[in-house]
Amino acid sequence: MVERQKFGNLFPHIVLCIGVLIVAFPIYLAFVASTQDTATIANGQMSLLPGSHFLETYYKTLFVGSSGTTREPVSMMLFNSLVMAMLIAVGKIAISIISAYAIVYFRFPFRMAIFWLIFITLMLPVEVRIYPTYKIVAQLHLLDTYAGLSLPLIASATATLLFRQFFMTVPDELLEASRIDGAGPFRFFWDTLLPLSRTNMAALFVILFILGWNQYLWPLLITTRDDMQTIQTGIRKMIAASDALTEWPVVMATAILAMLPPVFIVVAMQKLFVRGLVETEK
Amino acid sequence: MQKQTVFQSRLLPYVLVAPQLAIVLIFFYWPAVQAVIQSFLLQDAFGLSTSFVWFDNYKDVLGAPEYFATIVRTFVFSFFIAISSLSLALLLAVMADKPLRGSALYRTFLIWPYAVAPPVVGVLWVFMLNPSLGILAHGLRAMGIDWNPLLDGNQAASLIILAAAWKQISYNFLFFLAGLQAIPSSVIEAAAIDGARPARRFWTIIFPLLSPTIFFLIVVNIVYAFFDTFGIIDTITRGGPAGSTVTLVYKVYEDGLLGGNLGGSAAQSVILMGIVIALTAIQFRFVERKVNY
């Protein structure tokens, strides 16, 4: 601190408390709504304190499903979202780390051409090429499959660039030393490079998992069967009906369940998360 | 920049890049090229014959007053989302940068919404501001505002902007905080010794030093407003009332659902690609990125 403020740190505390209030209030309200019964909310008589229907609502949401438009229980959607997010995160890390390895540690014809081919994909998010991609996925008979959900989202260069940059900072001496010890490319990759990349992989995993979990437009287009929908597409269908028919406690419980895994990851792995965010964006 | 020591192998590097190359070619280049080709073609109503029509599809798309309105609307949304969320995030970051008791706790609470998916954000806000049962809607009505985003286009638009800006606060906050912490305290102390009060120090020292971060965040926020708001719009208004919340991405989606004009929707996609490439180029050109390629 440079100087003493007149009222100590009262002012920053007030501003930050208001900020936290703005950020947390919608989430708190969703939780409160998920513990009250449908009629109370529909009347607009909702109280700001948690009600008594917590177990009832969450049991219904997870294992029965809302009685309205979506008949699938939310546990199914959570499972689909989990599979999709894991496939995207693990798949992207796996294919990126080996291609970055090839680009950094080998000399071969078309090396730079291949690098640029991958690099350019950074520029276009899936949203702008959504229908042509849809057509191709349909032609490959991948609609309503986990492969169809995840493969097009793996096609981007962020992770490759990150690993490439990291590999460039790994001292050459390490490679020389392992070669003297008789290590080939596989051995060097497995015993030296992978252990060194662990933190980077973890940070990347956190970001990619959240990104995959929160995908919306793509799963909306390519899943038609109810048992293939993710939690993000499922929740929209729940408020599709008219106001009077929407079961708000179930919708809000679904919202809470939908944000639980990524929020948990952000809070529990804050350091990795911040690191991953800053590194993938710069 | 290149490694001095490398492995020698003729086949192995190709095997290693093959999976990524395959996915990129099939799911990125192939659809992108298709979109570009499609945008120059016109298909008859039965899909039996196609003809090459040069830029007719683009002329049709850009000539429609509705499309022009959508472009303007998307930029207006971006502007309001960026400005409101950036200014609030900057204020919070400046406060959180002070040595406060419990600042780690504040930080944890403030970065939460980053993890909340856009459709869930939409659901949260539609619930609070639902005209018949929303808590905030009751408040607005008590203040004498005739709140009904289901009928009033401007209110629907402000609801979208509010929800989208809310979600983006945490992202901006994190980057501002990182930017602030990178400013050496000696610079600020020197200014304080020269007699500059906190407000003056902020505008003459901290703010200019933070400008690369600000510029970077403006671009990121615009891209966010273009693409990630889709989930928010789709859960809150579905583009309504009367198309008053349709953004460029939402229009591509909507027109595609109706089917029909393939060339037109391909042309829309290509225009979007152009805008994104331009934004990325601006980012590369003007923002100092600490990356060596």
Element order, helices and strands of chain B?
A: HEEHHHHHHHHHHH
Distance between the termini of chain B: 7 Å
The percentage of residues in β strands of chain B lies in under 5%
Percentage of residues in helical conformation of chain A = over 70%
Q: Report the order of strands and helices of chain A.
A: HHHHHHHHHHHHHHH
Fill in the CATH topology of chain A: MetI-like fold
Total number of beta strands of chain A: 0
End-to-end distance of chain A: 30 Å
Structural classification of chain A: mainly alpha
Overall description:
The complex is a heterodimer of chains A (282) and B (293). Chain A contains 15 helices and no strands. Chain A has 282 residues and is an all-alpha fold. Chain A has a single domain (10-281), classed as MetI-like (MetI-like fold), CATH 1.10.3720.10. The relative contact order of chain A is 0.15. Helices cover 70% and strands 0% of the residues of chain A. Chain B has one domain: MetI-like (MetI-like fold, Orthogonal Bundle), CATH 1.10.3720.10. Chain B has helices spanning 12-38, 56-63, 65-96, 103-111, 118-128, 135-142, 153-181, 185-193, 198-227, 229-236, 248-258, 262-286; strands spanning 41-43, 50-52. A two-stranded antiparallel ribbon of chain B has the order 1-2. The radius of gyration of chain B is 24 Å and the shape is globular. Chains A and B meet through helix 1, helix 4, helix 5, helix 6 and helix 7 of A and helix 1, helix 3, helix 4, helix 5 and helix 7 of B.
